[in-house]
Write a structure and sequence with these properties.
With about 800 residues, the protein is α+β, with helices and mostly antiparallel strands. It contains 26 helices and 31 strands. The chain has a four-stranded antiparallel β-sheet. A hairpin with a 2-residue loop joins strand 22 and strand 23. Helix 1 crosses helix 26 and helix 23 packs parallel to helix 25. The longest helix is centred in the last third of the chain and has 29 residues. It is elongated and about 110 Å long. The two termini are about 30 Å apart. The chain binds one RNA strand of 76 nucleotides through strand 8, strand 12, helix 10, strand 31 and helix 22.
Length: about 800
RNA sequence: GGGCGAUUAGCUCAGUUGGUAGAGCAACUCUUUUACACAGAGAAGGUCACAGGUUCGAGUCCUGUAUCGCCCACCA
């Protein structure tokens, strides 16, 4: 018997070496697997953030997926588990920007786009190895030869291709619509990334002509010239739709128009409201229904525009009390509720408070019909049908209801982001200015005076100089145009001037004439047309756009690769229920349109890992259990089991260190069972199994069969429970105890028979436990006499 | 406001088509020349949230109530 069995199982001395053996065997790669394997089984790893570290949620995901992969590999399938990491666009860029500011006191505008991207690349390269090694520590049998990164060259190509195809099918369009604008991160945010947070504010009731209107946001009220009420509201039946009323408002007399619309809740407040279409989705829709004017009141930075009169140029936060004070003086405040509790929209990706803005952005049309297989369908329909036709099933199944509910409420998906790190939109513009970004116009003399520049040549030199210092490559972005005494400057240019302290918001808002957006000649494609003067859209794509391609971009799409033919659709997509909509639904959308197929056949949703009290693990609560600490202390096998047992699909897992410790004991139990059996087989050499000992094997097989059924139903929790019960309470406590007298008895034939039966039962147990506890089982396997190949490719001991 | 879950031993959770309540952990008693004290043997622990109903029979099916959780929407 090997020396090591005289001591308790030592995971630290074992796990590293075992993983190395697996990797060296090449068996993680389906092309190297022994025997003839026809049936494929594939999973793509939901790619963790490249700059992140492993947390318990990842650990749970890895445990489940590795169990499924190892189980199917042992069942003789051609198994592929594709590793990858995600660029996590916004999160990563913010992180690098933070570092930049902390170490060099610079913003991204100081260093410029190209330089920032270089810094991000360096940062991600450096941290990539951390997460990749942590994935290995869990024992994950990922095929590293197929490792992918969302921002690598092939994936970039796939994203470009997808965009172009969807654009050509009319499913991607550019439109001016109200979007969720994050003034802190200066980018749009998709509907799904918004998180509502409760907040207490003052709620003001204002006298608005004969009406009383309420608001928590007086600073948006400058543009309000429509007063809306329900058509059936008897209190206001004397007022007619379209009727005009003169009244006194914040900055003097205005004329308001009565609008009757059913969107108004008669029960709320006075049943009358004014609308701010440019900064509220509901108001925007009312305005569109009635063809009303839509006026922007607040700019991208939260600064009030000239429409605010004397308040123009102020930040909304500062302006609010001043506006309230003015209304108070004018006697227009009826009353104020100090403690009004309401929800405000925030950017869940660490951003600020969402300020709806009307912006020109790129969208995916989910309700637009296109031709497919001789009929007209919409993306929404396709997403719905994938489940209705049972091409995809979700475990646990009640999530299917939630999925349908989400689809039904789905609006067009805003896919453009104003951050720099990400897949850049493959669209090119050509105007005399180089793009059709937003521009602001000024009177020529005001600007030349402000910057101390006397003529156009001086301005040109000034710009060129600025250009060099700021590192911008494309001169066209920085320059504006002068014509008819008006200077037109791009937002990007203005931002640079602001950072240099040459202009400030106050001045801009007082001197601007208007804003414009020029139509440009447009080309959609990865590369610009051959002639010069084309300028690429500065925006990048929503990170979920590229994530949506993940099941097939990782397999080489758009090329017709062998991998794509063999492994797509993937067998199972396993992820947390928290990204069902972000990711799962979008993969169904993308795969449906681009491949006319589903991305996976089965969705398995695991729960979230919480602490022992059921709270989310967070830094602020200080209740984070680090999977690597746990692996260090108790071994990866124990960590895996602790995340599987008691975790029914979709249920949250309450994890405590005690649980992990408990499963370390189980690893040791198996270790000692082996020691006992090796001992026995040395004392009583393995012989022919007599009929009276056959039951030991039969019973073992039956337990494994039961576990197999559970795994097939994705009840890994029950499967491991079955095996645990059998091994500990039945095999160790009863069968081994009963065997002792037989092994030491006078009947040598019986002793050999029993010893043989136990040895065989042990091999079955080891094989059955291997997907769950790969390290300890593989280590024991290597010490059993007569075993040549690795346990990971041994045949599964049940049908 | 709409939707989806949950409520079973001190804690965490199983409980397949209805047939006398299960596991792990913790706690209790005993056991150490025993494969394993990271152990074994034993005992204890439950009005299955509550109230009705269907049934020969309900933790399981139906109705309602309460509490907790999550998702979606959102009121100016």
């Amino acid at each position: 018997m090997p020396e090591k069995f005289t001591k308790p199982y030592d995971h630290k001395a074992t796990e590293g070496a075992i993983y190395q053996k697996w990797e060296e065997s090449g068996y993680f790669n389906p092309d190297n697997l022994p025997g003839e394997r026809k049936e494929p089984f594939s999973i793509v790893l939901p790619p963790p953030n490249v700059t992140g570290t492993l947390h318990m949620g990842h650990a749970a995901m890895l445990a489940v997926e590795d169990i499924l992969i190892r189980f199917e590999r042992m069942r003789g399938k051609k198994t592929l588990w594709i590793p990858g990491t995600d660029s996590a666009a916004i999160a990563t860029q913010s992180k690098v920007e933070d570092i930049l500011y902390k170490t060099e006191k610079k913003t991204r505008h100081d260093v410029g786009r190209e330089d920032l991207l270089k810094r991000i690349d360096a940062f991600t390269d450096e941290s990539k190895s951390t997460i990749v090694n942590q994935l290995r520590r869990m024992g994950s049998s990922l095929d590293w030869s197929r490792y992918t990164y969302t921002m690598d060259e092939k994936r970039y190509k796939a994203v470009m291709e997808a965009f172009v195809r969807m654009y050509n099918a009319g499913l991607i369009y550019r439109g001016n619509r109200i979007v969720n604008w994050d003034p802190k991160l200066q980018t749009t945010v998709s509907d799904d990334e918004i998180e509502y947070k409760e907040q207490t504010d003052s709620f003001y009731h204002f006298q608005y002509g004969p009406f009383v209107i309420g608001t928590v946001r007086p600073e948006t009220k400058f543009g309000d010239k429509y007063v809306v009420m329900h058509p059936n509201d008897a209190r206001y039946k004397e007022y007619a739709h379209g009727q005009q009323i003169d009244l006194e408002w914040i900055n003097g007399p205005i004329t308001a128009t009565i609008i009757k619309d059913e969107a108004v809740d008669m029960e709320f407040g006075s049943g009358v409201m004014t609308i701010t279409p440019a900064h509220s989705l509901v108001d925007f829709e009312i305005a569109k229904r009635h063809g009303l004017d839509i006026e922007t009141v607040i700019d991208e930075r939260g600064i009030l525009l000239p429409i605010a009169g004397e308040f123009a140029g102020q930040h909304i936060k500062k302006a609010r009390p001043a506006i309230v004070e003015k209304l108070q003086k004018k006697g227009l405040i009826v009353k104020t509720d100090e403690k009004y509790v309401h929800n405000i929209a925030t950017n869940s990706r660490g951003g600020g408070i969402i300020e709806p803005q009307i912006k020109r952005q790129w969208f995916v049309a989910v309700n637009k019909e296109f031709e497919r297989d001789g009929r007209f369908v919409t993306l929404k329909q396709m997403m719905r049908e994938a489940l209705e036709n049972k091409k995809i099933s979700i475990t646990p199944d009640h999530f299917e209801k939630i999925y349908y509910h989400w689809i039904n409420n789905l609006r067009d998906w805003c896919i453009s982001r104003q951050i720099w790190f990400g897949h850049r939109i493959p669209v090119w513009y050509k105007t005399e200015l180089g793009s059709d970004m937003e521009a602001i116009h000024f009177k020529e003399d005001t600007l030349t005076e402000k910057l101390g520049l006397t003529d156009e040549k001086a301005f040109d030199r000034f710009s060129t100089d600025l250009l060099e210092k700021s590192g911008w490559k494309d001169k066209n972005i920085l320059w504006g145009s002068i014509r008819n005494g008006t200077i037109q400057l791009y937002i990007g240019y203005i931002n640079v001037l602001k950072q240099k302290g040459l202009l400030d918001d106050n001045w801009i808002n007082q001197n601007r004439i208007n804003k414009s957006q020029r139509e440009a000649e447009m080309h959609v494609g990865e590369k610009p047309p051959a002639d010069i003067g084309w300028y690429q859209d500065p925006d990048t794509l929503d990170t979920w756009f590229s994530s949506g391609l993940w099941t097939f971009s990782t397999l080489g799409w758009p090329e017709e690769t062998q991998d794509l033919r063999t492994f797509h659709p993937t067998s199972v997509l396993e992820t947390g229920y928290d990204i069902l909509f972000f990711w799962v639904a979008r993969m169904i959308l993308m795969s449906g349109f681009l491949l006319n197929d589903v991305p996976f056949k089965r969705v398995y949703l695991h729960g979230l890992v919480r602490d022992a009290q059921g709270r989310k693990m967070s830094k602020s609560l200080g209740n984070i259990i680090d999977p690597l600490d746990m692996i260090e202390k108790y071994g990866a096998d124990a960590v895996r089991l602790s995340l599987i047992v008691g975790a029914a699909p979709g249920n949250d897992i309450k994890l405590s260190e005690d649980r992990v410790r408990g499963y370390k004991h189980f690893a040791n139990k198996i270790w000692n069972i082996t020691r006992f059996i090796l001992d026995a087989s040395e004392a009583a050499p393995v012989g022919k199994i007599l009929p009276e000992d056959q039951s030991v094997i039969d019973e073992t097989k039956q337990a494994v069969q039961e576990a197999t059924t559970h795994i097939e139903k994705f009840r890994l929790d029950l499967a491991v429970d079955t095996l645990y019960q059998f091994v500990w309470s039945r095999f160790a406590d009863v069968i081994l105890e009963e065997s002792k007298p037989l092994l030491r008895g006078d009947d040598a034939q019986r002793a050999s028979s029993r010893s043989a039966a136990l040895t065989q039962a042990l091999t079955i147990i080891l094989a059955a436990l291997h997907p769950f506890m790969p390290f300890v089982t593989e280590e024991i396997w290597s010490s059993l006499p007569g075993k040549k190949d690795l346990l990971m490719v041994e045949a599964w001991p049940a049908k």
